[in-house]
Amino acid sequence: DIVMTQTPLSSPVTLGQPASISCRSSQSLVHRDGNTYLSWLQQRPGQPPRPLIYKISNRFSGVPDRFSGSGAGTDFTLRISRVEAEDVGVYYCMQATQFITFGQGTRLEIK
Amino acid sequence: EVQLVESGGGLVKPGGSLRLSCAASGFTFSDAWMSWVRQAPGKGLEWVGRIRKKSDGGTTDYAAPVKGRFTISRDDSKNTLYLQINSLKTEDTAVYYCTSEWYYLLNSWGQGTLVTVSS
Q1: Tell me: the pLDDT tens digits for B49-104?
Q2: Chain B residues in contact with A49 (beta carbon < 8 A)
Q3: Helix (H/G/I), strand (E/B), else coil: B26
Q4: Which has the closest alpha carbon to B66: B91, B41, B32, B40?
Q5: Contact A23, A11 (CB under 8 A)
Q6: Contact A101/B44, CB-based, under 8 Å?
Q7: Nearest CA among B4, B8, B10 for reference residue B93
Q8: Rounded to 5 degrees, what are φ and ψ at B5?
Q9: Which residue of chain B is at minimal alpha-carbon distance from A53?
C-alpha cells in the first residue's frame, strides 16, 4: 500500500497570512497513464470532506484561487495564500494512483 | 444538484451484519465509479473500497483491512450503492461516507451514516 505522510499535523495560522501543508508518498504517484492522481480535500468541522485540488494542481469547481497545489513524484504541497476564517478545518492529501489512501490530516486553526 | 444520501447505520453487536445504502441523484449514477470511505470518531479518513461502472466491468476493489468482510454492490436501476458489512468488529465503528469518483477524485460526498459496534 502507498503510505501518505503529511506535515505538519497541526498548523496555527494568523488570519491573512499564508499556510502550507506538505504531503509525501511512500512511492511515486505517477500512474501508468502518465497522470499523477494526488488530490487535496478539506473537512470543515461537522461536515463531510470536499475536494479542493485534483491531479496535483487543478482547482475543483468553486474553490477559491487562494488555494494552490504543487509537486511531483512523491512530494506535494498545498498552499493557502491568505488564510480566512472559513478555512479552519482538517486538510487531507489523497492518492488514487494505486487504490486510494489518505494522509493523516493536518488541522488548520487560527492563532 | 448532486445528492448522495446514506442510510442503514445504527448500533450493532460485534459479529453482527449491516447493509448500508446510498441513494444517488443529480447525476448519471450508472456512469459513475463509486466509493465508500469511513471515519472513526475523532480520526482521519479511511478508504473502504470502490465499484466501477458496468461498462468498466463493474468490478470492485477493497482496502486490505476490510477485504473478505465487506461487499460493495450497486443497483443502477435504483441509483443506489450498497455496502454489506459482515462479522462486525468494534474497530468498524465509524461514520461511513458514500462518494462518487471522477477521474480518480472523490468529487461528491454524502453526509455519512454512523455505524456503532458495541456489546
Answers
A1: 999 999 999 999 999 999 999 999 999 999 999 999 999 999 999 999 999 999 88
A2: 37, 45, 97, 106, 109
A3: coil
A4: B91
A5: no
A6: no
A7: B10
A8: -125, 110
A9: B105
d(CA A71, CA B78): 41
Please name which of B21, B4, B13, B36 lies closest in space to residue B117, comparing C-alpha atoms. B13
CB contact (8 A) between residue A1 and residue B64: yes
A108: its cell numbers: 488548520
Could you give the 3-state DSSP secondary structure of residue B56?
Answer: helix
Asked if B59 is an interface residue toward chain A (Cβ–Cβ < 8 A), one would say no
For B56, phi and psi rounded to 5 degrees?
A: -100, 15
Q: Which of A50, A51, A100 sits opposite B47 (nearest CB)?
A: A100
User: Could you read off the pLDDT of A21-57 as tens digits, one per residue?
Assistant: 999 999 999 999 999 999 999 999 999 999 999 999 9
Whether the CA torsion A65, A19, A96, A37 is positive or negative: it is positive
> Which of A71, A110, A107 has the alpha carbon at shortest distance from A91?
A107
CA gap B13, A41 in Å, rounded: 33
What cell was used for A84?
Answer: 480566512
Q: Per the structure block, which three cell numbers stand in for B111?
A: 453526509
**Contacts of residue A100 in chain B, CB cutoff 8 Å?**
35, 47, 50, 106
Q: How far apart are CA A14 and CA B112, in angstroms?
A: 32
Q: Which grid cell sits at B95?
A: 461514520
Q: Name residue B7's amino acid.
A: S
